[in-house]
Amino acid sequence: MQSLWKRHGLVVAAGAVCILVNRQGMGPLWFTGIALLVGGLLMRRAMTLGQRPRDEVPPLPLAIPVSGRWMARNGPATKVPSHTHNLAQTYAIDLARRPAPEPVWLWPVARRPESYPSFGEPLFAPADARVVSVSDRQRDHLTRTSLWGLLYVLAETFVRSLGSPRHLLGNHVVLDLGDGVYAVFAHLRRHSVEVAAGDLVKQGQKLAECGNSGNSAEPHLHFQLMDGPDITSARGLRFTWRFRDDDGEEHEGAPADNTCFAPVAPLPPAPYSAP
Fold it and tell me: Does the keyword Metal-binding apply (predicted)?
């Protein structure tokens, strides 16, 4: 059934086409479109429920995959799921460098990604790992941080969700950390990935640069752990970092939303039991 649920985007798109080309009012084509839309949305809902974590497992200690001062957004310390259970994003987190240009209401409508300090920042392996897959060809688009940009990104996100996950992830890298744990780096800068599928990487090795590809309003890193290599069927896993906040206090866990922090060298990893 999971392989069927993955096709929900095609079903929704087919339903939308039926409604748009219909010229006969509430006739057979219109009802077919409505049925396809409802069916596609139910398939997406089933897929999301199927990706809810089944068991509570200890978080995996990792090195923070960035350097310098960053801000956490949409993270598991503030709410779970931090994003959605769909695409194994239950415990995902977004990271962006600060300070950065402030969001605006009307003007400028968009900025070039180079205007943000996150863009081009190096990203590092959080542990020794094997590279599972790499995507590196999608463009880095303009930001969507104005009122008009945010309205646009709502429609854009819906359209992107109808296709394969790569349209949401943008350029990305998937790592196999061992013991059934996989890490995802998303929204990477175009042509910045320095590894290839099958490569063995060491903790702290540069993987790529932060970008603004895929479903991204401003340059940032989307990071998550999951229990399988297929993002459409895996379930999210928790992680823990050691970091220092702006008051100089050290913490272990995940930084809360809107917290600015800098990495602290991680402790040796504790034994981890995969779910």
Answer: no
